[in-house]
Design brief:
The structure is a homodimer. Chain A is built from eleven helices and no strands. The N and C termini of chain A lie far apart (73 Å). The longest helix of chain A has 25 residues. By secondary structure, chain A is mainly alpha-helical. Chain A folds into two domains: 63 residues, Arc Repressor Mutant, subunit A (Orthogonal Bundle), CATH 1.10.10.60; 141 residues, Tetracycline Repressor, domain 2, CATH 1.10.357. The N terminus of chain A is likely disordered. In chain A, 74% of the residues lie in helices and 0% in strands. Chains A and B meet through helix 1, helix 7, helix 8, helix 9 and helix 10 of A and helix 1, helix 7, helix 8, helix 9 and helix 10 of B. Chain A binds a DNA duplex through helix 1 and helix 3.
Chain lengths: 210, 210
DNA sequence: GTCTATAGCCTGATAGAC
DNA sequence: GTCTATCAGGCTATAGAC
């Protein structure tokens, strides 16, 4: 029997520890580069360099540039929507919305690369994830919009268009990640995230208090 | 005397009508292509084709890809900020804000390419217009933020952080242009601009009514 | 699994005829 | 002013040695 990787006995689920580490390093490097330059603007040289691999070795793990990109988008899309999934029908209406806003704002601060990755993709027409938008995303949003509408009907929130309310939360929170350079250029030394939580909390309290 | 262009007697300001028409066609084509694919993703072939010129002829009018791009950004930046400049210190405070929001939303509907051009540029770190952001833009925003603060101090608006109020207006209105595909994927057949004006009007009334 | 070398394509920009 | 032809460089992806 040959000393092939699959016969080593140390492999876990068909992938060695080195393979797992390299795949993770590649996706992290790809997130860096794709989020900064967009799909077309990124090069395999940059990604390979950031991952500490040679370019052909990079293509040993993923067979093409596009394969890296779509693997990255798929791996992130689910977690990206977690803050919205956590909206709890049993919770206090206004409190749930405010907590959702807070979670999204926290993600803009802690995961700006993910935000800019999706921003780049969507601004340019979402050529790689259009199906996910019209499928899973739409279903999830419709579900949560119905929940918001039920809160409004029960008099727990002031009346607003539920879908546009959700758009406003995405837009206001992701703005601090996607347009970070502009925000900081205008604010100077002031940290955007110092006043942003209070501002958004006030905004949604005043708008939604029944 | 040779029959050179400058001796024709029909030239206006050093440029013939054909030159003016071609320059305008180039900038319009460049707006199309750069706003859809970003600077790096755009190609001179696409721009030349959209403008109805050959690639070398394109480079006769602008000496490089970057020259086209920066000419476009400079030509648009001023008009892009007009809605904010129109904020009138003598007008009614809440009415002025609501009118500004409405003007910005109208621009997202009528000029989505311009919005996406700046979105692409800023998401990727604003490498070509960083100076303009930290210079002219910041000065203009600081000026209008002071105006908003004076309205708050006079009791004409509910207290909010003026800079973040301005960011919110940019974010909420431009979202409908920059993330158009996502908004439409979620809304399905419903026209985003049907409910958006009313939603934003309600939002800012409830937030700012003293 | 990882490397060097390179194929093959595309892109921005230039030369030179008309 | 506009074209055809083309160069030089950068890019993705593959071949093949180890």
């Amino acid at each position: 029997m040959s000393n092939s990787s699959s016969a080593r006995g140390l492999s876990t689920g068909g992938a060695t520890r080195i393979q797992k580490r390299n795949r993770a390093a590649i996706l992290d490097a790809a997130l860096d580069v794709f989020s900064t330059h967009g799909f077309r603007g990124a090069t395999l040289d940059q990604i390979a360099g950031a991952a500490g691999l040679s370019k052909p070795n990079l293509l040993y793990y993923y067979k093409s540039k596009e394969a890296i990109y779509t693997a990255l988008l798929e791996a992130l899309l689910d977690t990206w929507l977690d803050p919205m999934r956590a909206l709890d029908p049993e919770g206090d209406a206004l409190g749930e919305i405010l907590a959702y806003v807070r979670r999204k704002l926290d993600m803009s601060r802690s995961h700006p690369r993910e935000s800019r990755l999706f921003a780049n993709e969507i601004v340019q027409g979402a050529p790689h994830i259009h199906n996910a938008l019209a499928g899973d995303l739409r279903a999830l949003v419709d579900d949560k919009a119905a929940l918001i509408q039920s809160w409004i009907d029960a008099g727990k929130l002031a009346p607003v268009h539920p879908h546009h309310l959700i758009f406003s939360i995405w837009s206001l929170t992701q703005h601090y990640a996607d347009f970070d350079v502009q925000v900081r250029a205008v604010l100077g030394d002031e940290d955007p995230f110092a006043a942003a939580p209070g501002f958004l909390d006030t905004l949604y309290r005043r708008m939604l208090q029944p």
